[in-house]
Write a structure and sequence with these properties.
single chain; alpha/beta; binds adenosine-5'-monophosphate-propyl ester; 5-stranded parallel sheet; about 650 residues
C-alpha cells in the first residue's frame, strides 16, 4: 500500500485553500442549518426554502427531505439564469466519435434546443410527473432532452446505450414510461449502434405513446405511424420559448437504474432541490471551477457521473462542458490528449479503467501532445491503484496538476469523499477526506463503530442533500437495502480503511456487486441471464481482479444432467448475457462445474468460488459445512485452464 504524500502543487492557486476549507468545515459543524442555507443560495429558487435537512434513518420515523418548502426548476438553473450575462458562452462542446467533428452550443442555443424539446414533449401529451426514457448517444440533444424533462417536470430515466433491448424493456415497464427519446444510431469507435432498432425491439414487449428520434447518422430506420416522431422533421416548427414548471424541492427529477446485490436493477430516485444543491456545490468545490475553464468528464450520460458532472453540475455553475461520444483508443491511444489540446481542456475527469488501459500503451501517445491547458485531473468509479495514480499524476499531469480521486455512488447523487485540490495533500489510492457535511463511519460486521486507524464497512451516519430518496415503486426496498443492515446508518456496500491521518481508502464492494471497468453489475442479474439458457441448471457469478477492468466476471455454470460444456456453449451463454443485459455484463470466463459448493442447507459458499477465481489453491477456511467437500477439488481442477 502506497503511503506517498503529494502536497498540493505550489502554483495551483485554488479559490479554496487550507484556510478556506477549514472555515467551511467549521461553519458546517457549528451551524449545519446555516451552512446548508448558504449552499442553497447557489441556486435560483422560485421560492427560497426556509427548511434545510429534515431526516431520520430510523425505521419508525424513516424520512429524508431537503429544502422541502422551496420551489425551483432545474432547467432554469442550468440555462435561463445564465442568459443575461453569459448567453454567448459555450455551454457544451460536442466532440463526436470522429476527431474534430462536432459543434459548440452556447447557453442560448442550448436553452432554445431545450425549449423546443420541451414543447414537443408537451405536444405529445407528456405532463409533469410522467416518466420519459432517454436512450441516446453522447450528443448535446441528450442534455437538451434531460433538461426539457426537467423544464416541464417530467421525470427522466436515461439508459446507457450499451444496454440491450430486454434491459430497456424492463426499465420502461418498471417506471411505466410514456415516451422514449432516442437517436437513429449511435457511433462509438467507428461502430454503429442501432439505438432506434433496439427501442423498437424493446417496445415489442410493451409500447409507449411516443418515440422521439434524433438524427445522428441519418440511417434509414423504421418509423411507426402515430407513435414515432423525427425530431429534425419538426424541430423548426417548435417554439424556442417554453415556460418552466415551478417544482417542489422534493419532486423527483430523475430515476437512474443501477444494480444491487439482489434482484433486478433498482430505480434510484433523485429529487430536485437537494440533488441540485449537492451537484452545484460539489462541482464547484472539487473541481475548483473558474469562468474560463473547459471541463471534460468522459462519462456517459447513461451513468450518474454523466448526470451530475457532464450535465447538471457544470451547467448550474455556468461552465463549459465537453460531451464526448467516442472512446479512448479511437482512432488511436492519443485521442484524449489530442482532444485536450484541440479544445483547450483545463479539467479532465475520467475512470481508473481508462487510465490503466492508456498506461499499458506507454508514455509516447501522451507525450505526443502538449496537455499544457490541463490544470486539474480527476478519477471516479472504482478504486485506483497507486501505480495508475502515479502515472496519471506524473505522465498525464507532468507532476503539476492535482489529482482528485472522488468516491461516490449512484445513490449519493454527487461526490462524498474527495480532496479539495487546493487544500488536501494527496495520497495515491486514497479518496482522502469527506466533503463538508459528509459523515462517514466504519463499522464491523455487527454494526459496532470502529474508531481510529482501522478497516471496516463504510456507512454514512447523516443525510446530505444529494442522497437518493427512494427506489422507484418500492420504498420498502429502499429502506431494506440501505438502512436495515446497520441500524440508523446508510450502508454504502463498500469496504474501507481509514489511516492515522483520517484518510479513507475504499477497498471495493463487500456485497454481491461487481465493478467491471467502473460499470456496476449485480451477480444475481448475470446469474439469472445464464440460467435462462435451456441447458443451464445453475450458475454462480463472482469477480476476480483484472489488470485493466479492475474486476472481471468469472461464471460457474452447472449444466443439466447429461449435457456437456464446450466453446460453442460458452459463446451461446455469452450471447445470452448480452441479450438479457448488454455486452458490459458478459463474463470474461465461464467455467463448467459439475456442482457448486453448497452447505447442507443448500446455500452456495461464494467465498470459495471467489478464492478459486482469484487463483488461490489452498486456504479455503472451514469447508466442513459443505454438503460435499470433494467439490472444491473438482472446481480447482476446472479453474486451471484460466490461470
Ligand atoms: O465501489 C464504489 C465504486 O463504485 C461504486 C458506485 O458505483 P456507481 O453507483 O456505478 O457510481 C460510480 C460513479 C460514482 C462504489 O460503491 N467507486 C466509485 N468511485 C470510487 C469507487 N471506489 C473507489 N474509489 C472511488 N473513487
Amino acid at each position: 500500500m502506497s503511503e506517498t504524500v503529494h502536497p498540493v502543487p505550489d502554483d495551483f492557486n485554488a479559490r479554496i485553500g487550507p484556510a478556506e476549507l477549514d472555515a467551511l468545515l467549521k461553519a458546517e459543524e457549528s451551524d449545519p442549518h446555516g451552512h446548508w442555507m448558504e449552499q442553497a443560495k447557489r441556486l435560483q429558487w422560485t421560492k427560497f426554502p426556509e427548511q434545510s435537512g429534515d431526516w431520520s434513518f430510523d425505521e419508525d420515523d424513516f424520512r429524508i427531505n431537503w429544502f422541502a418548502d422551496g420551489k425551483l426548476n432545474l432547467s432554469v438553473n442550468c440555462l435561463d439564469r445564465h442568459l443575461e450575462k453569459h448567453g454567448d458562452r459555450t455551454a457544451i462542446i460536442f466532440e463526436a466519435d470522429e476527431p474534430g467533428h462536432g459543434h459548440r452550443y452556447t447557453y442560448r442555443e442550448l436553452y432554445e434546443e431545450t425549449c423546443r424539446f420541451a414543447n414537443l414533449l408537451k405536444q405529445r401529451g407528456v405532463h409533469r410527473g410522467n416518466r420519459v426514457m432517454i436512450y441516446m448517444p453522447m450528443i448535446p440533444e441528450a442534455a437538451a432532452a434531460m433538461l426539457a424533462c426537467a423544464r416541464i417536470g417530467a421525470i427522466h430515466s436515461v439508459i446507457f446505450g450499451g444496454f440491450s433491448p430486454e434491459s430497456v424493456a424492463g426499465r420502461i415497464a418498471d417506471c411505466d414510461a410514456c415516451a422514449v427519446i432516442t437517436a437513429d444510431e449511435g457511433v462509438r469507435g467507428g461502430k454503429h449502434i442501432p439505438l432506434k432498432r433496439n427501442v423498437d425491439a424493446a417496445l415489442e414487449h410493451r409500447d409507449v405513446q411516443s418515440v422521439i428520434v434524433v438524427t445522428r447518422t441519418g440511417a434509414d430506420v423504421p418509423m411507426k405511424d402515430g407513435r414515432d416522431v423525427s425530431y429534425s422533421a419538426v424541430r423548426d416548427q417548435l417554439s424556442t420559448e417554453c415556460e418552466a414548471e415551478a417544482m417542489d424541492a422534493e419532486d423527483p427529477l430523475f430515476i437512474l437504474y443501477t444494480s444491487g446485490s439482489t434482484g433486478k436493477p433498482k430505480g434510484v430516485v433523485h429529487t430536485t432541490g437537494g440533488y441540485a444543491v449537492w451537484a452545484a456545490a460539489t462541482f464547484d468545490w472539487v473541481f475548483d471551477y473558474r469562468d474560463d475553464d473547459v471541463f471534460w468528464c468522459t462519462a456517459d450520460v447513461g451513468w450518474i457521473t454523466g448526470h451530475t458532472y457532464v450535465v447538471y453540475g457544470p451547467l448550474m455553475n455556468g461552465a463549459t462542458s465537453v460531451m464526448f461520444d467516442g472512446v479512448p483508443n479511437f482512432p488511436d491511444f492519443g485521442r484524449f490528449w489530442e482532444t485536450v489540446d484541440r479544445l483547450g481542456v483545463t479539467i479532465f475527469y475520467t475512470a481508473p479503467t481508462a487510465i490503466r488501459a492508456l498506461m499499458r500503451e506507454g508514455d509516447e501517445p501522451v507525450k505526443r501532445y502538449s496537455r499544457k491547458s490541463i490544470r486539474l485531473l480527476g478519477t471516479v468509479g472504482e478504486p485506483i491503484n497507486p501505480e495508475a495514480w502515479e502515472w496519471y499524476w506524473r505522465v498525464v499531469g507532468d507532476g503539476r496538476c492535482p489529482v482528485v480521486d472522488t468516491w461516490w455512488q449512484t445513490e449519493t447523487g454527487g461526490i462524498l469523499i474527495s480532496p479539495f485540490p487546493g487544500a488536501t495533500p494527496m495520497k495515491p489510492g486514497s479518496a482522502t477526506k469527506p466533503l463538508p457535511g459528509v459523515k462517514p463511519l466504519l463499522v464491523d460486521s455487527e454494526g459496532k463503530e470502529l474508531h481510529g486507524a482501522t478497516s471496516g464497512n463504510l456507512c454514512i451516519s447523516a443525510s446530505w442533500p444529494g442522497q437518493m430518496r427512494t427506489v422507484w415503486g418500492d420504498h420498502r426496498r429502499f429502506f431494506e437495502t440501505y438502512f436495515s443492515t446497520y441500524r440508523g446508518l446508510y450502508f454504502t456496500g463498500d469496504g474501507c480503511r481509514r489511516d492515522e491521518d483520517g484518510y479513507y481508502w475504499i477497498t471495493g464492494r463487500v456485497d454481491d456487486v461487481i465493478n467491471v471497468s467502473g460499470h456496476r453489475i449485480g451477480t444475481a442479474e448475470v446469474e439469472s441471464a445464464l440460467v435462462a439458457h435451456p441447458l443451464v441448471a445453475e450458475a454462480a457469478v463472482v469477480a476476480f481482479p483484472h489488470d485493466i477492468k479492475g474486476q472481471a466476471i468469472h461464471a460457474y455454470v452447472t449444466l443439466n444432467a447429461g449435457e456437456e460444456g464446450g466453446e460453442d456453449l460458452r459463446r451461446e451463454l455469452n450471447q445470452q448475457v448480452r441479450k438479457e443485459i448488454g455486452a458490459l455484463a458478459s463474463p470474461e470466463r465461464i467455467q463448467f462445474a459439475p456442482t457448486l459448493p453448497k452447505t447442507r442447507s443448500g446455500k452456495i459458499m461464494r467465498r470459495i468460488l471467489r478464492k478459486i477465481a482469484e487463483g488461490e489453491t489452498a486456504g479455503f477456511g472451514d469447508t466442513s459445512t459443505l454438503a460435499d467437500p470433494t467439490v472444491v477439488d473438482q472446481l480447482l481442477a476446472g479453474a486451471r485452464e484460466f490461470q
